[in-house]
Amino acid sequence: MFLLPALVLLGALVVYPIVFSVYRSLFDASGSGFVGLGNYGEMFSDEGIRTALRNNVVWVVVAPTVSTALGLVFAVLTERIRWGTAFKLVVFMPMAISMLAAGIIFRLVYDQAPERGVANAVWVSVHDTFSDPAPFPGAKPRPRSELRPSGGGGFTTRSAVRAGARVELPLVAARQDDLRGARPAGAAARRPGVVSGTVWLDFTRGGGGRPGVIDGNEKALAGLRVEAVRGGAVVASAMTAANGTFTLPGGAADGARLRLPGANFAAAYHGVEWLGPALVTPAIIGSYVWMWAGFAMVLIAAGLAGVPRELLEAARVDGAGEWQVFRRITVPLLAPVLVVVLVTLMINVLKIFDLVYIIAPGSSLRSANVLALQLFQSSFGTDVDEGLGSAIAVFLLLLVLPVMYVNLRRLRKERRR
């Protein structure tokens, strides 16, 4: 009599949905045609569902392991410092945020525009510290000129040059902001024994001028690297002067082609495409670790508080270093707690849905797909098929059952002790 209300509630909320899902998975999308295990066969033949399964494996292996490891490190390192409690509070604080709010936060964090995305703001700052910006991003040769594209964003002359020759390399499409303070272009002097030339913006504001000829106040493109290339190797190089002129030694450059490498024209660095198909899953796992490392830290810190300090002190007295104490004493004594945290996070990860649904943009959603999200899309998306959705739900339950079984065995062993 006392158990009856609990059994009724358990049956209505747990047993009945499981039984009905298994039953519904044996029928087609309309629910009227019996297909047996057909939905399960379709589930494993669908490329999108196979991608979701692969991503789930990555999630189960990486996310709980990293979260538990960080929680262990935080719990151990903050044990002896005065502000350890404040640090733990800050690390645990993301647990107070819902998955929806965390997803919105990290959608902004991973924005590719550095002025909006924190991750790319940091990354671009580091990149720009060690990399020189291109002098004239976006500039390119005038159509039907001597220069032609040569790969990597660079341009190479169509024919080889000879010692004593003068080569004119006109460009267009340079931004006016990059030309502030630029001097008028000057014609290079023809000199025996060297290859000389001029690189300039072959464009006269207001119209006029002759293509391929330095006219009036057309601006010089200073600071561009010019290379002499023979057989795929750079044999000589020079930088353009303030008036756009350059000289190369004729002995080395004779018979070579002149190249303006792509580094002269590379577009401004805009950061990493965190939410592109290649990095979207690791990026979302990072947001999950940000939320759940605090949960792991609190549980491990509670277990650490129960570790006998006499054992740790005895090991130190016997000459053990801190790393040996941590590896041979602390971690083995915390093993039951670590298993609890790891198993709990594995069960949680198998059901992950919110973060993936919110953070992944539409263009990368297929690459970031997981089983719980695929279940939602199959059951309530554009191509509604509740039979297939129920099959995915049953399969997800079967994946969770071994983890739950391990957890139950561990609890029984703890009770026997």
From TrEMBL:
<keyword id="KW-1133">Transmembrane helix</keyword>
<feature type="transmembrane region" description="Helical">
    <location>
        <begin position="289"/>
        <end position="307"/>
    </location>
</feature>
<feature type="transmembrane region" description="Helical">
    <location>
        <begin position="333"/>
        <end position="360"/>
    </location>
</feature>
<dbReference type="InterPro" id="IPR050809">
    <property type="entry name" value="UgpAE/MalFG_permease"/>
</dbReference>
<feature type="domain" description="ABC transmembrane type-1">
    <location>
        <begin position="53"/>
        <end position="407"/>
    </location>
</feature>
<keyword id="KW-0812">Transmembrane</keyword>
<feature type="region of interest" description="Disordered">
    <location>
        <begin position="134"/>
        <end position="155"/>
    </location>
</feature>
<protein>
    <submittedName>
        <fullName>ABC transporter permease</fullName>
    </submittedName>
</protein>
<comment type="similarity">
    <text>Belongs to the binding-protein-dependent transport system permease family.</text>
</comment>
<feature type="transmembrane region" description="Helical">
    <location>
        <begin position="57"/>
        <end position="77"/>
    </location>
</feature>
<keyword id="KW-0472">Membrane</keyword>
<dbReference type="GO" id="GO:0055085">
    <property type="term" value="P:transmembrane transport"/>
</dbReference>
<dbReference type="InterPro" id="IPR035906">
    <property type="entry name" value="MetI-like_sf"/>
</dbReference>
<feature type="transmembrane region" description="Helical">
    <location>
        <begin position="388"/>
        <end position="408"/>
    </location>
</feature>
<dbReference type="Pfam" id="PF00528">
    <property type="entry name" value="BPD_transp_1"/>
</dbReference>
<keyword id="KW-1003">Cell membrane</keyword>
<feature type="transmembrane region" description="Helical">
    <location>
        <begin position="89"/>
        <end position="110"/>
    </location>
</feature>
<dbReference type="GO" id="GO:0005886">
    <property type="term" value="C:plasma membrane"/>
</dbReference>
<dbReference type="InterPro" id="IPR000515">
    <property type="entry name" value="MetI-like"/>
</dbReference>
<keyword id="KW-0813">Transport</keyword>
